[in-house]
Design brief:
With 239 residues, the protein is α/β, with parallel strands linked by helices. The protein has one domain. The chain has a seven-stranded parallel beta sheet with strand order 1-4-5-6-7-8-9. The chain has a two-stranded antiparallel sheet with strand order 2-3. A two-stranded antiparallel sheet has the order 10-11. Strand 6, helix 3 and strand 7 form a beta-alpha-beta unit.
Length: 239
């Protein structure tokens, strides 16, 4: 049975490797670093999982799966393992994998040889936390993929994306945890308005902070309602 994720926009998480290197301000209070230290592990040491590498093969019901929630799919330290992980995805076409990276400059050189215009069961996304990292969207625009998406989480500053013509989905969310940086709701509202103008599905995950409201950090209401749009009709997270 798949482990159901508490992340609002997915069903389950899969970590063929774990550990990461911080690359931008959005990484500052990453939950993985906090949790790894709690377990007495070194978070910056990237290791292949001994128990979960092939886990999705044992999940027989179709799932939305967030890949590498405790690392980055395109991190350099995983180059020796990635082809085998692509094989897991290739052999489980009934799952849909959400690959989210802060290293989009490495995507094109590390796709499978049979990627062509993208696999039907892979969504390719980038994290963008403020205006300084909008270039990640521009790099994603050049990646062949069936679905391209942006996660603006933790949202720590206003963002103007420019053209969203090649983007199929945008997520926003405030930072959570004991040292969470506050999110100005106007930043998320601006992104929502950009998505509505471009007819791009918009998903607001949470407002962030240190307390939960209705099961989400800081609650999920933005402009007095929830925003749950998904990029593919009929696919709905379990949360």
């Amino acid at each position: 049975m798949a482990k159901i994720s508490s992340i609002e926009w997915t069903n389950a998480t899969w970590n063929p490797w774990h550990g990461c290197i911080k690359v931008s301000p959005g990484c500052k209070h990453c939950y993985m670093f906090r949790d790894k230290r709690r377990y007495g592990q070194e978070p910056a040491r990237i290791v292949r999982s001994k128990t979960t590498f092939h886990e999705p093969i044992s999940w027989h019901s179709p799932m939305l799966i967030f890949a590498c929630s405790w690392s980055d799919w395109f991190i350099e330290a995983a180059d020796d393992w990635r082809d085998e992980a692509w094989d897991v995805i290739r052999n489980t076409p009934y799952h849909t994998y959400q690959i989210l990276t802060k290293r989009p400059e490495r995507i094109l050189d590390h796709l499978p040889v049979d990627w062509n215009s993208g696999w039907n069961n892979v969504w390719m996304g980038v994290s963008i936390e403020n205006q300084d990292y909008v270039y990640r969207k521009e790099l994603l625009d050049g990646v062949p993929a069936k679905v391209r998406f942006i996660s603006a989480e933790p949202l720590i500053g206003p963002i103007k994306f420019g053209s969203l013509d090649k983007i199929d989905w945008v997520i926003t969310g405030g930072e959570s945890g004991p040292r969470a940086r506050p999110m100005n709701p106007e930043w998320a509202t601006s992104i929502k308005d950009q998505c509505l103008e471009a007819s791009v599905p918009f998903f607001h995950k949470q407002n962030g902070g240190t307390t939960r409201e209705d099961g989400a950090w800081g609650g999920r209401l933005l402009d007095e309602r929830t925003w749950d749009a998904m990029p593919v009709s009929g696919i709905v997270p379990l949360n």
